[in-house]
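We read letters as residues; the fold follows as tokens. Both lines appear below.
***
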Amino acid sequence: MKNFFLIMIVCFMTGCAANVQQSVKTSNVQDGTMPDSITLDISASQSVSRSNDLSKSINELNQLISTDYKGSVMPKGSPNEADISVEITIEHFRYVSGFGRLMAGALIGNAELRLSVKLIDVATNEVVSESQLDTRSGFSEGLLGATTSRQLEAMSKKIVSIINSSVNNHQ
């Protein structure tokens, strides 16, 4: 019985990964292979308040996608043309840090993140895919599970999955 309580406490403290809800607006994805190269353009919509946490989260998401994606990530405005342009707009953002969650618990509130993701075939300027990704943390995800950094990790994996399923018409 003592081990059961210990396991429950560990699970409660560490939490679990964030769940990402996806709604597809448009999809012109056909059978194909993963694009060799992408450009990333991550920005926040006008309705999102600018903050240091937002800037850090944009940089973190950019780094996570660049690490998770197995192809080449080219800087925006590069003279070499990428296969796919990935435009990510942060539509809603509420930052919750692990430290804040640890110190204040449920009182700090839920981390929230909603992204609009658009994949554009650079050669044809055609929208290949357009999706809304949404994740909201809950206290049931554990004391340290309901944080923005975990949401960014989950979003990165989902975005890379969307990219990998897109068509590369340039091969």
